[in-house]
Amino acid sequence: MKCSFMALTRENVFTQVRDTIVEMFGLPIEQVTEASRIRDDLDLDSIDMTDLTIRVKAALGGQFSQRYFNNVSTIGDVVDALYALLTDNKECKSG
Predict the structure, then answer these.
(1) Which tens digit of pLDDT belongs to each residue from 5-17?
(2) Which of the four CATH numbers 1.10.1200.10, 1.10.150.20, 3.30.1340.30, 3.90.1640.10 does domain 29-92 have?
(3) Which of 22, 56, 57, 88 sits in a 20 to 30 Å window from 49, CA-based?
């Protein structure tokens, strides 16, 4: 797996997730926070989440299963899952 960020940080992962959501779903950037609830606040369904996961995986260079995202409810949960998966790979760790 290769990482797109020079120094992978949790903040980088959040920024990528937020920017992707804004671009894909046309939501205002200030509406997408770590506390935003995927279904209740952002009105994203399971198909939207699958599309989002595919897009973010491609942007971050990740190769992992959709199953890691089955129990997420907030954007922070998505960021935590992605960050944990990506930093598990030694090539992605920053310093």
Answers:
(1) 446 799 998 998 9
(2) 1.10.1200.10
(3) 88
